[in-house]
C-alpha cells in the first residue's frame, strides 16, 4: 500500500473520529473524519455505513505501527496534478494539491502524502491587506499549492 495509490475498500467500522476501511483480507485503513469530503467536517454523514464500497487514496503508511491513513476528499482522489509523496517529488514551480494542516499568523501549513508538509508564508497567500490566514483558511481545506523550493533548514 503505497502513498498516492487509489484503491477501493469496504467500510467496516464507523466511529466519531473516522471510518475503518477494509482494503484487502488483512489490510484495514483509517479515513479520519476530516478526510471524508473536500469541505472540512467534524461529523460523519449518515451516508457512510458499514458495507459501503468507497474509493480512497492512500495518504500515509506506518509499517511499524501497522497503520494506513487514507483520504476520501474528492479533489485529492481525482486530481490530475502530480502528487508529492517524497521530498524529491517537490520540484520548484510544480503545482500540486494538498490540504491545510495548520494555520499560524505567519502562514499556512499544507500537508501532502507520506507525511510531507510545506509552509505557505503569509506573503505568498494572496490575502487581502486586512485578511489573516485564520480568516481565509480552515484546517482540512483542500488547496492547490505551488512548490517554491525545499526548506534547507530541515532535512
From TrEMBL:
Single GO cellular component term: small-subunit processome
S1 motif domain span: 4-73, 93-155
Pfam families: S1, S1_RRP5
GO biological process terms held by the UniProt record: rRNA processing
Any one GO molecular-function label of the UniProt entry: RNA binding
PROSITE patterns given in the database record: S1
The protein's name in its UniProt record: S1 motif domain-containing protein
Lineage: Eukaryota, Viridiplantae, Chlorophyta, Pyramimonadophyceae, Pyramimonadales
Amino acid at each position: 500500500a503505497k502513498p498516492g495509490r487509489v484503491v477501493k475498500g469496504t467500510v467496516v467500522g464507523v466511529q466519531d473520529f473516522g471510518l475503518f476501511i477494509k482494503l484487502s483480507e488483512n489490510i484495514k485503513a483509517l479515513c479520519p473524519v476530516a478526510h471524508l469530503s473536500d469541505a472540512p467536517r467534524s461529523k460523519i454523514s449518515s451516508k457512510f455505513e458499514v458495507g459501503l464500497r468507497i474509493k480512497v487514496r492512500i495518504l500515509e503508511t506506518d509499517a511499524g505501527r501497522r497503520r494506513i491513513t487514507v483520504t476520501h476528499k474528492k479533489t485529492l482522489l481525482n486530481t490530475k496534478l502530480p502528487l508529492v509523496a517524497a521530498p524529491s517529488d517537490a520540484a520548484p514551480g510544480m503545482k500540486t494539491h494538498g490540504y491545510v494542516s495548520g494555520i499560524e499568523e505567519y502562514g499556512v501549513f499544507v500537508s501532502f502524502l507520506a507525511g510531507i508538509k510545506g509552509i505557505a508564508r503569509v506573503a505568498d497567500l494572496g490575502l487581502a491587506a486586512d485578511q489573516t490566514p485564520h480568516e481565509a483558511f480552515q484546517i482540512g481545506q483542500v488547496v492547490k499549492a505551488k512548490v517554491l523550493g525545499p526548506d534547507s533548514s530541515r532535512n
